[in-house]
Amino acid sequence: MNYDFDEVIDRKNTGSLKWDFYGRYFEEEDVMPMWVADMDFRAPEPVIDAVQKVARFGIYGYTEETASYHEAVVGWLKRRHGFVIEKRWLHYCPGVVPALHWIIQRFNRPGDKVIVQTPVYYPFFEAVQTGGCHLVNNPLVQVDGTYRMDFADLEEKAADERAKMIILCSPHNPVGRVWSEHELSELGRICLKHKVLVVSDEIHGDLLLNGHRLTPFASISEELAMHSITCYAPTKTFNLAGLQISNIIIPNPALAAEFKIAMENNHVSRPNIFAVAAAEAAYRHGDEWLDQALSYFEGNQALVRDYVSSNLPELKVTPAEATYLAWLDCRALGLEIGALQEFMEKKCGLALSQGYIFGAGGEGFVRMNLGCPRSVVEEALKKLYRAIESFCRS
Questions:
Q1: Does the predicted model carry a pTM greater than 0.85?
Q2: Domain 17-44+287-387: which topology?
């Protein structure tokens, strides 16, 4: 069936964090919310049908993941990414961010060091610090407008005997890179050499644009699979974040046993009954919806790129290889961090994620959520143009 991604759906007064509670994070009341990364699209029809079926049944007791659910996840990974896994590698967690917190706490001791690659998804920072660990930055570098890993710097920091873990963001949020097998292999080589556990956040792994292909970190070799934990979920892919489900892939039995203890200790080892039904339906029947959504995201990304190139020379758009997020370089506006945030909110009327929250290298950037109808993106770009024309160029 054909899905209508142009439909503007009113999400106000639905308890939406994005639309009803942005006042917690932004001063202005009348702004266009394009910040937190969920979509303004309905989930695939088979997902809605599956949730309604569970709702009509009327018994919402304790639930476990079924063999059928595990088969759906295994089939999806093989079909979409050529990633062959065993069902016993799969472990439930209510979300990738909670998983990161519990992984860091379980596999590190207070004072250990955890490496991240900024600018990067900012909840990583809290997870490391809450776990009593020290945050170590291996910053990404820009080469001809494209972000690369700094392997020399990574080697130096991984060599520290207190460095025990790296959180890999693959594909990368917010810069939109899809790391090549060569890049991931080199990172893996360094981490194996220095016994640094790789925790790969691949939650955006299905949101691939313009022919790019995901290389799941654990698919590169058996040695890297045994030295890694992969965090994967249907929530970004199919707009299911509110159902709270993720799949933690752990091939190493010893690591899996430790993760299971962490989950049991936190009393979160059983999933939401609606989440299991929705995720299984998405993995079995969501290909058509996702293919159409990816095409739509490519159109939104192209719109932003072309509009900025033609009308907003003060800004630069980072090429997006994955995700429905645009990473905009606003440094040429010459605004300090606070001034840029105020400009976007008060002059443009846009609620965007400010780049500085993603850590070093994010200053002067903003992240714009393009998981919305094209008319909304067009209006946002017009708001940017009018504000820059009125308040910057003059």
A1: yes
A2: Aspartate Aminotransferase, domain 1 (3.90.1150)
